[in-house]
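queue> pop job 88
queue> type: inverse folding (structure -> sequence)
queue> payload:
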């Protein structure tokens, strides 16, 4: 099956729309989302609605989880953003079915999903929403952290959360998609961790939206230009969203 993986949309509807348009041109059968539909950005309702309609399965990210639990462990900017986001999404007494449906969807997302030998999480199998698997983890070789994570993997573990596209093999080799021409062939006998990058807030110094297409063993990262200025300008109209959340979108950090 040829499918797409999106993650870390972060309430950025121009980025999500551009990615979904690109997916339509790629002969993809299904779309899966690895979490963080909301948070940081100015379009939480629109993104929730679009993801509900477009995706076969959606798992919970730490920002989605924070709608229920609050921004525990979040920095001030992220905490302020999630509090504002909750106010936009949470149903009131007179809210209609559409509003309640979005809230129900976001607050009851599952923590993981398995598709044959592929395993989908947001953070890691040890902490589904909050643990970071970072590129520099590879420098330290077979640490207990990575050994425990790989022990949970059958073949391929796909995740998001860091917003940094990468491959980490069970030989503790780090591969960066840019260095591979954004294409890579996985080995059915090798365990790998694959970060799909971020649709709505890339942090690898490339501001273009990022997602992945999986076609059997072939994995392709696609970068998509979108109307970044739209999101930047909209963030700046909302006093509760820190201006740095707009500025970072222009440089991809």
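queue> result:
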């Amino acid at each position: 099956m040829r499918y797409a993986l999106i993650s870390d949309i972060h309430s950025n509807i121009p980025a999500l729309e551009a990615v979904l348009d690109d997916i339509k041109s790629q002969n993809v059968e299904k779309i899966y989302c690895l979490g963080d539909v909301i948070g940081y950005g100015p379009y939480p309702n629109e993104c929730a609605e679009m993801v509900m309609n477009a995706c076969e399965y959606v798992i919970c990210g730490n920002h989605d989880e924070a709608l229920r639990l609050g921004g525990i462990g979040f920095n001030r900017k992220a905490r302020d953003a999630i509090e504002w986001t909750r106010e936009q999404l949470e149903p009131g007494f007179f809210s209609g079915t559409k509003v309640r449906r979005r809230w129900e969807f976001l607050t009851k997302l599952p923590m993981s999903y398995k598709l044959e030998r592929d395993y989908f999480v947001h953070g890691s199998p040890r902490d589904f929403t909050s643990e970071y698997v970072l590129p520099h983890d590879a420098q330290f070789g077979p640490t207990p952290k990575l050994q425990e994570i790989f022990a949970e993997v059958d073949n391929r573990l796909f995740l998001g959360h860091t917003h940094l596209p990468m491959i980490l093999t069970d030989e503790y080799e780090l591969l960066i998609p840019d260095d591979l021409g954004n294409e890579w062939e996985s080995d059915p006998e090798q365990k790998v961790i694959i970060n799909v990058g971020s649709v709505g807030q890339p942090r690898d110094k490339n501001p273009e939206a990022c997602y992945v297409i999986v076609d059997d063993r072939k994995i392709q990262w696609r970068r998509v230009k979108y109307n970044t200025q739209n999101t930047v300008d909209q963030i700046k109209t909302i006093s509760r969203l820190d201006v740095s959340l707009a500025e970072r979108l222009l440089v991809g950090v």
